[in-house]
């Protein structure tokens, strides 16, 4: 147990960070007017990761709550840094990925109403479906990508990453003022509008495209 403790108590261990309210239309559909004056940063646990490198089955929690889909572009940090300058952002990106930030909307609303943190609404098991890593050299411009999610062959989320309010450089610079970024840190960049509930037997097909080329996909059958 002591060896395990020493392994865990290590400030160089990676983390999963995410930003909320980073697409204007999503802010509006959630009842807001404009993105916050500073990025809203939260964390997801590694136990929420669900690697989707082939079509998979996703079993919804047994609580019976309304679980929402949020498709997002993510990136991985390549090297350690603190107080990183915006113009140096590219040096700290090790690659990109497609992800779903699943959210227990009922639990989130419950905690928000009380003014409490809502980690449990974002960090449940399987709440972070993620694609394989995309080499950063394959992406010419991370703000010229298309995020798209279909449910039962109907497009429910579709937007360009250019609609991102706080860009990757902004996020790296802002987060690293407070937290040291470590190699292997995963960062989600927010979701476009169109979020909504998942239902049993839904077929989810998420893609990240560069022009007409599909860079990553997530295919899930909901149970």
Outline of this structure?
By secondary structure, this protein is of the alpha+beta class. 17% of the residues lie in helices and 34% in strands.
Keywords:
about 220 residues, alpha+beta, 5-stranded mixed sheet, 5 helices, about 15% helix, about 35% strand, globular
Give an overview in words.
InterPro entries: Fumarylacetoacetase-like_C. One of its GO terms (molecular function) is acetylpyruvate hydrolase activity. This is Fumarylacetoacetase-like C-terminal domain-containing protein. The chain is of the alpha+beta class and 223 residues long. Helices cover 17% and strands 34% of the residues. It contains five helices and 15 strands. It has helices at 2-8, 24-29, 105-114, 119-122, 168-178, and strands spanning 16-20, 40-44, 49-51, 56-58, 67-69, 71-77, 93-100, 103-104, 128-130, 146-151, 154-160, 186-188, 196-197, 203-210, 213-222. It has a five-stranded mixed sheet with strand order 2-1-12-6-7, with no helix packed on it. Strands 4-15-14-10-11 form a five-stranded mixed sheet, with no helix packed on it. The chain has a three-stranded antiparallel sheet with strand order 8-5-13. The radius of gyration is 17 Å and the shape is globular.
